[in-house]
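[agent] plan:
  1. take the single chain provided in the ticket
  2. run structure prediction with default settings
  3. attach C-alpha cells to the ticket
  4. add a short note for the reviewer (M.T.)
[agent] executing step 1
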Amino acid sequence: MAEPTVPASNRRALLACAGAACAAVLAGCARYNSSNGIAGGQSTQGGSSSAAPASPAGSNGSAVLARTTDIPVGGGKILPGPKVVITQPKSGSFKAFTAICTHLGCTVGSVSGGTINCPCHGSKFSVANGSVVNGPATSPLAPVSIKVQGASIVQG
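[agent] step 2 finished; step 3 output follows
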C-alpha cells in the first residue's frame, strides 16, 4: 500500500500555523513581565517597589534613580521604569545592574539573601557583581553605570 502524500502547500500552512502559535506563546511571556505584571518591581529587605524618587535630577543633571537610604545593606531595589536593580552589597558600596535576566529576558522579581532573583526559571545573581549564583542563566547581569551624589543615586 502506498504512503499517503501531503501537498507542499498544506505542509507550509501547518508550519506557518505552528510558528504563529509559538509567537503567541512568547508574546504572552513578554506581557507577563511588564511593569504591571507579577514579576515587575518587587523588592525585599527594606526596598520598596515604587519608581524613582520625585527629585528630577542630581547636581550634574542626571536623573535620580533612588536615595541611598532606599537600598538596604545586603539587599537591593528593583526599579521597574528603567529596568535597573541597585544593590548595596556592603555598607556604603552601591552597584547597579540591568533588571533583565540573561536566561530568557524576564524581569528579575526580588532581591534577598544576597542574590537578585528571577521568578521565571529560578536564576539567581550576586548582589556584589551580578555574576550567576544559580542557573539556568549562564551570563551575568550587565552592569549599569551609577554615581552616588550625597544621598542620591544617579545615572552615570
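[agent] step 4 note for reviewer: The first strand starts at residue 64 and ends at 67.
[agent] ticket updated
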